[in-house]
Amino acid sequence: MSITAVSSLHPTRAGVSTRLRSPTGASAAIVRAAREKNATLLLSVPLAVEYQSVCRRPEHRMAAGLSLRQVEMFLNAIIAMAEPVHTHFLWRPQLRDPNDEMVLEAAVNGNAGAVVTFNVRDYGTAPSQFGVDVLLPREAIARIKR
Questions:
Q1: In what order do the strands lie in the sheet with 83-84?
Q2: Which conformational region is residue 90 in: left (phi greater than 0), alpha (psi within -120 to 50 degrees), or beta?
Q3: Is 66 helix (H, G, I), strand (E, B) or coil?
Q4: d(Cα 141, Cα 92) in Å, to the nearest integer?
Q5: Prediction pTM value
Q6: Terminal alpha carbon distance of the chain
Q7: Cα separation of 136 and 128, whole Å?
Q8: What is the domain count for the chain?
Q9: Strand, helix or coil at 110?
């Protein structure tokens, strides 16, 4: 089964930086599923800029053992793989953490089936009002495998 998802990314949360640090974890499996066309990653411009900012941080690069050039190659691949989302409507405020708002907006504007994050608690029930599930990466992988 294929899912369309937006992955939440902040310095201490799941997403692209987690994939960068752990190439065998659930976040990496979601990236592989997208590469194999079993999942669709959605990406708005603000979210792409956030991904770039976080992944370029020295602490993430050092933890992953990657040079800045390797991080750039990784980011370029993620951006090329993702389906662009044009933000037509802003839904703020919906969430208790304002940093998660751009993730929900990308999900809603891109008709995502899910937001994939380790930060499920901060999303509360707001995404369900828009028909968007909030899944842990392992739950997303289980859904993709069905």
A1: 83-84, 39-43, 3-7, 114-116, 133-135
A2: beta
A3: coil
A4: 29
A5: 0.83
A6: 5
A7: 15
A8: 1
A9: coil
